[in-house]
Sequence to fold (171 residues):
Amino acid sequence: MRRAFEFTIGLAIILVAVASLYNARNMPPPSRGNRPITLDYYIDVQGNTTSLEAYRGDYLWVNYAAERCDYCGPQSEALRTLDRQYGDKLIFITLITSTEKLAEAPSAGTALDWADRYGLAHDRVLAYYSTRPLPYHILYSPAGDILYEGAGPLSIDQIVDIIRAKTPLLN
Fold:
């Protein structure tokens, strides 16, 4: 009886693993169409509700970061460097998605601390609770369409290559 139970559990684990792999390989790619960039629950460093809609008409690189993410600090430093080089061509925004505590929503103070820690412009760091993998990046067109979306740390050269491939800005 015990062997039958162990066999059943083992088979169930294998089936779940196979189903997960199948779903991961067969998921459609993220929508690249007219996905809106308006989400009205971003909080700026002064505690005001704001929207990415204010940046419509410009190319926009949005970076999701959190205090608990080891890669996010160096990623913010890379984006600060890129902003100094290319900030006249596109806007770099950082969304702080949580605090040092897992699943704790960020505040205006969290965003302000992050901006000060990494030398980022206060008006370019917003608080927004999210459970995306970090760091996470989205490049928006002036119309608000997603041109690039991906997770994981990126070097300055990788980001420049993405911007060159997806926009006419650096060519």
In short: The first strand starts at residue 42 and ends at 43. The CA atoms of residues 63 and 137 lie 5 Å apart. The chain has a mean pLDDT of 84. The domain at 42-166 is CATH 3.40.30.10 (Glutaredoxin).
